[in-house]
Amino acid sequence: PLGDAGPMLVIPNARLGDEEPYSYRDIAAFWVHAKDIGNVNPVPLATHTPGPGDPVWLAAQSQENRTQRIFQAVVVESTGRSMVFKYQDPADKPKFSSGAPILDINGEVVGINVGGGMYQGERLGHANHVGNIRQHLLDSVRT
């Protein structure tokens, strides 16, 4: 348990259930007061979105033994709205990892996992990248 979260942050353009390529609006955020963080160490948002060829890691929990695991991948596409990455090991099948952070080589958050699947024998993932996250957060404080 991480503790209690405050109220949900209203994000004006957020939407659930949008089809690709509109899942860049799939985002939620909560207010957490510093006194409620406890033993959790927040990870900073990266200053830029990685591009094709950049290494990234999905931080998710292994469903087999409930341990934390890092799934290595490489960015294959990065647009103004989305980031697609290919897992290094196509056998990796991180289940139930929607909302998990995508990290860069510095351990900073560069995206939030939205989903994934197989395409032409490759296991791909799709993320709401840090540029979108920052824009959503800016839009929410302007309203």
Short account of what is shown:
The chain has 143 residues and is mostly beta strands. Helix content is 9%, strand content 31%. The model has no long low-confidence stretch (mean pLDDT 83).
Give a written overview of the molecule.
Strand 5 (109-119) and strand 6 form a beta hairpin. By secondary structure, the chain is mostly beta strands. 9% of the residues lie in helices and 31% in strands. The radius of gyration is 15 Å and the shape is globular.
Q: Helix count?
A: 1
What ranges have pLDDT less than 50 throughout 5 or more consecutive residues? none
Query: How big is the Rg?
Result: 15 Å
Q: What's the helix-strand series?
A: EEEEEEH
Structural topology:
Blueprint lengths: L54 E7 L6 E11 L4 E5 L13 E3 L5 E11 L2 E8 H13 L1
Antiparallel strand pairs: 1-2, 1-4, 2-3, 3-6, 4-5, 5-6
Task: List key phrases describing it.
single chain; 143 residues; mainly beta; six-stranded antiparallel β-barrel
